[in-house]
Amino acid sequence: MTQLLRGSEVAEALQSTITSEVRDLKARGIEPVLAIVRVGERADDISYERGAVRRAELLGVGVRSVVLPDDCTTMELLEIMEDLSEDDDVHGILLFRPLPAHIDEDAVRKALVPTKDVDGITDLSLAGVFSNTATGFAPCTAQACMEILDYYGIELAGKRTVVVGRSLVVGRPVAMLLLARHATVTIAHSHTADLPGVVKAADLVIACVGSAEMLDASYLAAGQTVIDVGINVAADGSLLGDVSREDAEGIVQAITPVPGGVGTVTTSVLIKNVVEAASEILG
Q: How far apart are CA 128 and CA 78, in angstroms?
């Protein structure tokens, strides 16, 4: 029988630690605050924002939301990012991406102070992930995958691991985090020869390709652990992962559900990073 690696259990475990740290910070006169910057009204951004706000409120972390219209200029967004970066009462900044095509995303990223980059989007944060140093934070979704694997006691050292997807948001960062834990990692993508065969040979699969139920039975094998990062909206409004759950259940050993898997943990990781950033003030 396939085990469901539910994110709620992982989030609850993180919650206990975060709540204790927030209590300690407030006793010392520091209230952790997250600033959320959103451009436009993308449904997926709004959904994630709601979840992040709920999680922050539950854990005692303040939230400041800044929403700009789709037609805002790069300069207007830069001014917001610079103001928040200089605001001592803000400890973490979350910028929703992708940004509208007319905005210089690189310039905006560079305006973010790395110490407040709680979602690992600055060059310094990513460099820390790729060099396996303690500089900055890893992207929240990539770190959420690791939190799930650790919580459920999934052995990583020496395991054949395939990451399907190569974005800087999940694919490449999670591959580096896995390498740091001594997994044997292959990054696969749309140009990988015999992609189903490559995935089928893995012990651990991280599916982050962004295509609804792309990984069907032809990609899956008995004994595998599958972390399904995909969040795809079906025609009826339901959420689908990158893996066909119907095919996976009964084949793989364990899989994260969609919804209720990685996404549930990602918001907890985000708030955890804000609290850690606030803690840096104390040295």
A: 24
